[in-house]
Amino acid sequence: MSGAGGLGHAHAASPAPPPLTGRRRNGNVLFTLVLSVLMLLGAVVMALVLVASSAPAGLVIGVVLAALPVGPVIGAFLWLDRYEPEPVRLLLSAFGWGAVVATAGALLLQTLDRFVLGTAENWSAAIVAPITEEAAKGLFILLLLWWRRHEIDGILDGIVYAGLVGVGFAFTENILYLGSAYMGGDGVGPGGLGSAIGVFVVRGVFSPFAHPLFTTFIGVGVGYAVTHRGAARVLAPLLGYVLAVAAHALWNGSAFFAGGQYFVLTYLFAMVPAFLMLAVFATWARSREATMLTRALQDAAARGYLGQAEVPWLVRLPARRASRAYALRAGGPTAERVMRDYQQEAIELGFLHDRYLRGTAPVDFAERGTVMVQRMAALRPHVLFPPVAGGPAAFPPPSGSGPRGGPVR
């Protein structure tokens, strides 16, 4: 957008960013309210289920063993999220949603199916469980899309949020399985620590990625939808859900049908290749973000929103770390925090401007772009860039009285 409705006076703004509009503020309040209520209800339901399903010793063993794979799997998703780290509170919310809301919702739906429709156990595991569990997990991503769409800039964000929801779901589900294995009984073996460790090896060592893998199909669909127009906005999330259910059904079905004799084959020739393909795709998407951000920020710099010499310090991960380290040495913790905030605002601006360049900008892009540019302008006089790599000791603010060539969208 250009002309009177643009951002031509952004650099003259005061340090305080404009307040959120009523629509944006209401969306944040509703999202927080709905999330809080559902998390509380889910936590109560799952607490009752966990206490009722295992004796204290079984519950402790289940929690300890279920927690072991959580850190490495979460770390893998956070590694993908390094260019534009998502808010910690939302990442924790995604994990919590999977751990209590999705598990409670899926459990209630499956219990209802068992009592109302009387579905056999193997069919329930292979059909009902995938449908209900992926719907319960995917609902968090849809809530983000509905009320916090600005937090999802593309496919990688969708993968990260969906993956953490899946990790949370797997954590609680593993507690139930591990606790039951420790207690022993019909269908779960003799019990004891050996039985629990056997289940842990299968679920926590060889397949900790199962639930995150299923749900990332939904994340990919939602991430694709926010960067495209037309029918893709509806079809992509729906297709992602269908693929998530299909992968989940294949996995569960291989364990419950034909005596489980196809479980290992399914694991080796379906699940492992699917996981590797997703890992390669996610890594490619991460590297593609660097190229996209460089192009978008260079175009934004050409319009006067930042200096061209700043772009490498804002995009390249080693340079970002080096610039923060330099700011810490030169100006202390405050300067390091300013550098971190400036980099984050610039990356957010890069994602938004890229969507403008591709013709898929959100309807509130002008408002969001104005806020980002004003925040950068307020931070810029206090930013300390290193005295190497294409610039003087401290890069000056962009020349001229304001942005040129139209606003960032």
Q: What is the C-alpha radius of gyration, as a whole number of Å?
A: 24 Å
Per DSSP, what share of the residues sits in E-state strands of 2 or more residues? under 5%
Low-confidence segments, given as residue ranges, are 1-19, 389-409
Fraction in helix? over 70%
Largest sheet: none
Number of strands: 0
Q: What overall form do the CA principal axes indicate? A: elongated
Summarize the helix and strand pattern as letters: HHHHHHHHHHHHH
Tell me, rounded to a whole number, the average pLDDT: 84
| Helix/strand structural class | mainly alpha
Number of domains: 2
Distance between the termini: 7 Å
The helix count comes to 13
Descriptive key words:
single chain, about 400 residues, mainly alpha, 2 domains, membrane, PrsW
What does this structure look like?
With 409 residues, this protein is mainly alpha-helical. The chain has 2 domains: 24-261, no CATH class; 292-382, no CATH class. The chain is 73% helix and 0% strand. Helix 5 (121-147) packs antiparallel against helix 6 (155-183) and helix 6 (155-183) packs antiparallel against helix 8 (210-226). The longest helix has 41 residues, at 317-357. Residues 1-19 and 389-409 have low confidence and may be disordered.
Helices and strands in order:
Blueprint: H1 22-53, H2 56-67, H3 70-80, H4 88-116, H5 121-147, H6 155-183, H7 193-206, H8 210-226, H9 232-256, H10 263-302, H11 311-315, H12 317-357, H13 365-379
